[in-house]
Design goal:
By secondary structure, the chain is an all-alpha fold. It has five helices and two strands. Strands 1-2 form a two-stranded parallel ribbon. Helix 1 runs parallel beside helix 3, helix 2 runs antiparallel to helix 3 and helix 4 runs antiparallel to helix 5.
Length: about 160
């Protein structure tokens, strides 16, 4: 099944808020078309694209809707096909590292030194651990051909 094209919106070029998100969404769809996508997943992506094609929002509302739909498509690709955009795992694990590794390390350090002021030291340590783990996962995905040649930023 072919992934449908996003409807051209010449009026969106004038909007400085929605235009970068719109361009990024177009590039994401182009990259998805380069991959082998099963009909079920392509059908779901087509539903999302059709939803964007039907709405007549502009400005901030359009940007919010584009970011939401884009997030849903990326989550669908990761869940169903294990295909992710560039730096997806790095950004995901950055937050997980701070919360899962950084805070406990900071608490342990603060408790062992009897000074809870050291709790803040654990967060950058967890940040570093998370980025390292995520970068490794991104590298593995790229080597296996499971990475899209686009970096998704929520502008």
């Amino acid at each position: 099944m072919e992934i449908i094209t996003l409807k051209s919106r010449p009026d969106i070029r004038e909007n400085d808020k929605a235009f970068p998100a719109y361009q990024q969404f177009v590039v994401l769809l182009e990259e998805i078309r380069k991959k082998e996508v099963p009909d079920v997943v392509a059908g779901k992506i087509n539903e999302y694209v059709g939803e964007i094609n039907e709405i007549s929002l502009s400005g901030r509302e359009m940007k919010k809707r584009l970011n939401t739909v884009q997030s849903n498509i990326v989550r669908l690709l990761v869940k169903e096909l294990k295909i992710a955009p560039k730096n997806y795992y790095r950004m995901l694990w950055m937050g997980i590292g701070m919360a899962s590794f950084g805070v406990p390390i900071g608490v342990a350090l603060g408790a062992s030194l009897d000074n809870m002021a050291f709790i803040g030291i654990g967060i950058p340590i967890g940040f570093s651990i998370g980025i390292a783990l995520g970068a490794g996962m991104d590298k593995k995905a790229k080597e296996e051909g499971r990475q899209l040649d686009v970096e998704v930023k929520y502008l």
